[in-house]
C-alpha cells in the first residue's frame, strides 16, 4: 500500500519558529525536522495530524532527531469528541540511555510494522494520528 499523505496539523504542543511543525507536511524534504521551542523545557512534544483519508495502517516510518521515546495513538474524525484515541504503538524507546547521554545516534529512521511493535488497525486505521515524543532535553521529529 502506498503511503498516505498527512493533510494537515490539527494541534501541536510546541515548535521552534525556524523548524515549525509544518515541516512534517513536506514529504519532499524529509530532512527538515520539527523542533520544540528552545524555551520549552517540558521534555515532551505532541502533535495531532489528520491523514487525507481513513486507511488501514500496516506500517509507520518515523524519522527521529533526539527523542528518547515515541507513542502513537489513532482515532477517527467520526468518533465523538469525548472518545479517547486508541494506542497503535505503545511508548517505544527510540534512543538508548547511553546514546541520549552521549548525544550519539540521535538521527535515524525507525520502521514499525503491523503486528510487530503495536496493535493492528485493520478496521480502517485512523483518520487522526497523535504522536507523543519525550526526552530529558529537546524533542525533534521529521
UniProtKB/TrEMBL annotation:
DNA-repair protein Xrcc1 N-terminal domain sequence ranges: 1-116
Record Pfam families: XRCC1_N
GO cellular component: nucleus
GO molecular-function terms, A-Z: damaged DNA binding
One GO term (biological process): single strand break repair
InterPro entries the UniProt entry points to: Galactose-bd-like_sf, Xrcc1_N
Protein name, per record: DNA-repair protein Xrcc1 N-terminal domain-containing protein
